[in-house]
Predict the 3D structure of the following.
Amino acid sequence: MVIDHIGAILYPDVEWMRIIGRFSFPLFIWLLVQGEAHTRNVWRYGLRLAVLGVISQPIYQLAFGVTDFNILFELLAGLVCLRLSRMGSQQGTTLPLVVWLVGALVTDLLNINYGSYGIALVLLTRYFRPTPVWFLSWVGLHVAYAWLIGPFQLPAAAAPLFFLLANGQRGAGARWFYLFYPGHLAVLALIAWRLGLLV
């Protein structure tokens, strides 16, 4: 992610930095899915994402010169979808399908970074299985996304290779892990401002 953002903010013509960065979002999704499954308090987890999303928003807009909502709001939407679909599955209802469709629609309508594509990644990652059908679904999503939007995100199709390295055990607690997001963006924005890249 840091390499990606250094490329986007300071070296926008250096394509290899952006290509490396395509792996970061699926890995954040993986951490989100694992976090939702193992957290002691999912609502506190969501509150942290919301607070950091609000803190990050002006920094994000300044650093990238954009108007959409930052990735932490996408992760928050994904967290809500994960938990509501889990609750619906336990009750044996059709709620999970509705939750994912509404999540995709809302993130697109609110212009949240990654939008429905991000919600689809959360859904697929939630049901990750190292099977040919799952990998075909993942790659198919990225091919469709490349056809509709462009090939920029296509390298992320290889991200599940990192999922296979996970040992399935709960990791160390990192409650304020996402604080790194606004922190590093603020540093990069300051550097860009000092270099005259931001006005």
The radius of gyration is 17 Å. The CA atoms of residues 67 and 122 lie 23 Å apart. DSSP finds ten helices and no strands in the chain. The mean pLDDT is 90.
